[in-house]
TrEMBL record:
Organism: Hymenobacter swuensis DY53
Keyword line: Glycosidase, Hydrolase
Keyword Amino-acid biosynthesis part of the UniProt annotation: no
Ranges where the Glycoside hydrolase family 2 immunoglobulin-like beta-sandwich domain occurs: 226-318
Similarity comment: Belongs to the glycosyl hydrolase 2 family.
Name assigned to this protein: Glycoside hydrolase family protein
Amino acid sequence: MATPTPPANYGFSTSQGDIRTENPLPRAVLRTNNYLLLDGEWNFALDPEDVGLRDYWYLSHSYQRTANWPGSVEEHIAQQQPSGPGWRDKVVVWYEREFALPERGDEGTHSLFQLTFGACGYETRVWLNGFLLSTIEGEEVHYGEYTSFSFELREEHLRPVNRLTVRIVDTMDAETPRGKQESHVYKRGGIWYQTYTGAVRSVWLELVERNRLRSRVGVDSVIEDRMVRFNLTTRVHDPGLYTLRLQVFDRAITTLQPLATADFPLRLEAGQRRQRVVMEVPHAKLWAPGSPNLYRLVAQLLDSEGYVAQIETHFGLRKIESRGTYVYLNNEPTYLDGILYQPGTATYEEMQRHMHAMQALGCNLVRVHIAGVDPRIYNLADELGLLLWVEVPSPHSSTPQSRENHRAELLRMLALIESHPSVVIWSLYNEDWGAQDIATNPETRQYIVDMYHYLHINHPQFLVVDNDGWQHISQEGRLKSDLLTAHVYTPDVNRWAELLDHMVRGDLNNVAVLPLVIGDPFFYGRQKPLIISEWGGFGFADYGGPQSAEERTDRIRQFKQELRKRPLAGDVYTQATNIEEERNGLLDPHTGELSVPAGLLASQNPATPLPDTTLLH
């Protein structure tokens, strides 16, 4: 079968305007340039015997089938083999398409073509006209399926019409970050889901400057002084003197006059470099739920001749702290009314509806459960004023290799998420999945402790949870987690109240499936905020929950009242939507329509008020 004909409108589109407008590319940072979206029909082939590399499919192959990108391998296999069993153990697939090279215009001498995959994996190789490409980081094989990666295209490899070939491999390997996708360790069923891998986000070609800022911005603010630390990454081919220019605008006011501006001279060598700079934004309003004040950052890299490469993003000033019994947001104690969110195979449009619906339920926090999401969802949370608790998709076994894979995934996610004021909490592990030997293996514990300290030093704008749910690590009586979290499921409200009383009194051994703390003795004494980070499950038959929406609503109200009678810092109801065999959702996964009253999860008129903070400022 011939390669699909490129669409007629294969000329460049223009990336420009405010982030608030609909962004067709799955990224959070805008670049004022031209791009060509390569989504659509691609040639597709299964490689069940894994012979494609040996037989040079990247040079020539006769494809008999097509598939739409983006889309999962599982979906594409099902379309080709409707009655087939899907894939087991390992899958190898190939995609290929042609595209005409767009014209560069006047900016050609300063620019080059960059190819970006919004997410693809777990193992991805890419060829252009038969030449194997290397990512900007120098990888001939990219590992990871939750974040974007890019290739700079060399001039000698480009043709008027170009052939792009992609080989994707995934396995049931328990050492790779899988989240709740099934593996050799956890089989599909119950809380474990079908794999969802492959060409899962858009791919696009764009014209970028040879010397530029990458679309990665870190933000850490000191709200007392209205100081903002920006972490930016330069990518330079031509060594020399450059100027990094930052301008901050009030997004609520349409004006050409920036609130603040600053220039930073840099001498840059060829390659990539991360640079921190600090700016004062006087009189800036703080970001928080209910008042999600955002500012626009325009960052420019100017060469010695004055040529400008520019990116744009938004940011907010906010501070998050774990202090005694409560979580403090901008120095104010804030109860976290949370909900567990598992997007599964939801589209970007469905996820948008989910976010609005979860806020309508009364939540100020969404716990995105060990999954990667479209980066535009973080932008939406910034806009709505929704706090986010994000988690590294976990491996399913505890080995030196699984820990290395976990660390690599964490660093990839951090590079692309550290700018969002909505992201306030990170979990390293959940219920010791991928760290099953946490109580007995010093190496496992040390790795988690090391990453906890790494995040504190390099990303102080986040709270960090070592292992959510139970088995938190204590060293010399110091909890290596900013929050003491517990997963507690019971359908009986009296038992629920009893368990909550045990926890607030400091009983850490008889309240969850496993002890809440391991390692050296830890004496609670209300040193850390206590959060019930999973509860409910009402509607999931294995948890004994009520089946009707009315019964579920009443039960949730009763349980929520018991939570607010006690000195807890927050709670996370399980969960937002039904997903596969878990039937405990409160909103429709497609439309976002609520099956319970709006505001049900909000803490209104709490029985135990948060403390007076007039003396804390």
